[in-house]
Amino acid sequence: MPCTSHTFYTVYTFCRRVAPLLPWALPLMLAMPGTSSAQPASTSSAQTYPTKPVRVISPYPPGSSADIIGRIYAPKLTDTLGKQFVVDNRAGASGNIAAEIVARAAPDGYTLLLLNTAVVASQPLYKNLPFDVTRDFQPVGMLGIAGYLLVVNQAVPAKSVQELVAHAKARAGKLVYASTGIGGGLHLAMEFFKMQTGINMLHVPYKGSALAVPDLISGQIDTMFGSAPALLPHVRSGRIRALGISSAKRSPAFPDIPTIAESGLPGFDAVSFTALAVPTGTPRDIITKLNTVLNQHARSPEIITALANQSTDAAPMTLDQTTTYIRDEIVKWKKVVVVAAGVKGE
To answer: What SS3 class is residue 89?
Structure first.
């Protein structure tokens, strides 16, 4: 039957009279065009986000590098967006416990992950991960990037990266290097260094820098990559010697230490990055809003100074830049883990 104005009016009048008695009638009436009770257009999810506290899952214990960086940003996100951003530590399994929690969380912007180098390197390192970094996470933005210091004890005669390489080749398989665990960032950085230089050294994993550094100072360990906060006090006191930094550019925190790339290994770049990620499927407008706020704070003098105190550089990136950066890291570490080193997760 054609929908004439008379037909429309008859149905509309009927619905108004019986709406209190028939629950299906009111939705029908509201759906009719031209009625004064029509529903308003839906609003963007980002306009009201967040409406409740947001969990930021940290893959490591309090005091770890990624955790500290997350806690530098969390109060700023809270102040800007009006709801609390709470850092929730879920340490274990090289960050994979935290990553699994976020991968399985609702994609609504209320569960975020501090995604870092170790979690990305886990993809080729472990065979049966319950998540896939590329498939299950959408990068939001970069929080900070930190290079590792390459150091030796005072008994090692090398005063430069090239002298260390020559010394290691002359004593093939005899030099000992430390890391803070198989598959961790420090271990992979040294495996990358070995791959690039063709040297062979003995690996001794420790449970943390607090145990490795004293053995380095005493001479039981010859060399290692390490985080600047753990090593710089001993470099400045003269107990160990810094030969280079693993990032592509010199760090503003210690500009006198050359990069390994400029010390004879062009293209060498092995860093600890910390990014923010959400489960895949999170609304794009929420991700964009978070990226905008992150970059706003990453450019602020307060955040730059706080990160510099951790020997970390602020690194604001767009969504596409962050995604590309992380995908490139996955490719790089897959080469190191699978092709060159044959490293297997514990």
So the answer is: strand
Q: Is the pTM of this model over 0.85?
A: no
The count of C-alpha atoms lying within 13 angstroms of the C-alpha of 101, restricted to the half-sphere facing its C-beta, is 21
DSSP run (H or E) holding 54: strand 54-58
- Residue 134 has φ and ψ, to the nearest 5°, of -70, -40
Find where tokens 């753990």 sit.
230
- Alpha carbons 228 and 126: distance in angstroms, whole number: 28
The helix/strand/coil state of 278 is strand
Give the per-residue pLDDT at 342.
62
Q: Which residues contact 60 (CB under 8 A, 6 or more apart)?
A: 66, 67, 89, 91, 95
What 3-state DSSP class applies to 176?
Answer: strand
Residue 168 contacts by C-beta under 8 Å, 6 or more apart in sequence?
Answer: 175, 197, 199, 200, 201
Taking the CA atoms of 201, 203, 208 and 211 in sequence, report the sign of the dihedral they define.
Answer: negative
**Average pLDDT rounded to a whole number, residues 314-336:** 93
Cβ neighbors of 211 (< 8 A, separation 6 or more) are none
Neighbours of 26 (CB within 10 A): 15
